[in-house]
Amino acid sequence: MGFFGTAASWPADTVLILQVAGFIILLLSIMYAKKKIFLRHFQMARITVSLGVVSLIWMVTSLVDSFQIISSHITVLSSLLTVAHATIGVIAMTTGILLASDSLITKTKTPMRAIFFIWAAALLMGIIVYIKYYLL
Fold first, then answer.
1. DSSP letter assigned to residue 106
2. Which distant-in-sequence residues (6+ apart) come within 8 Å of 97 by Cβ?
3. Helices (H), 2-136
4. Considering all CA atoms of the chain, what is the largest pairwise distance in Å, rounded to the nearest integer?
5. What is the pLDDT of residues 1-51, one digit of tens each?
């Protein structure tokens, strides 16, 4: 049992907190970018990506541990949602890492906005997965 008092483990609760905190930090970093304080924006985006990488370690482990169950029930909504969350999350994390490390992605508004919305979609799906598996 996690520290929220749900059926989730403490790592699942920790990942939820890290992801929500990372998203809030990312939102704050956008405010710095709008004020043209780009160094602070960049630093905060890197913190967000770091929190995401830490979270990803547990999420990948959990997915691997649950892979047989998920793949044997792939047509069930919760399994489809988990696979969609994992897919979009990997895209968000990979592009976030590339952006934060100054690799392969030009830092302009268009790719940053796209990555932000992909990250937001992954977070929303992750929250839904958490609710589906641990609260319902």
1. -
2. 49, 53, 103
3. 10-34, 38-72, 77-100, 109-130
4. 50
5. 788 888 888 999 999 999 999 999 999 999 999 999 999 999 999 999 999
Do residues 27 and 36 touch, judged by C-beta distance below 8 A?
Answer: no
| Distance from chain centroid for Cα 58 | 12
DSSP letter (8 states) at residue 131 = I
Per the document, the length of the chain is 136
Question: Quick one: how far is CA 64 from the chain centroid?
Answer: 17
CA distances from 32 to 26, 36, 70 (A): 10, 6, 41
Ramachandran bin of 108, using left for φ above 0, alpha for ψ from -120 to 50, beta for the remaining angles: beta
Q: What angle do CA 12, 26, 96 make, to 5 degrees?
A: 80
Of 75, 57, 79, which Cα lies nearest the Cα of 67?
Answer: 79
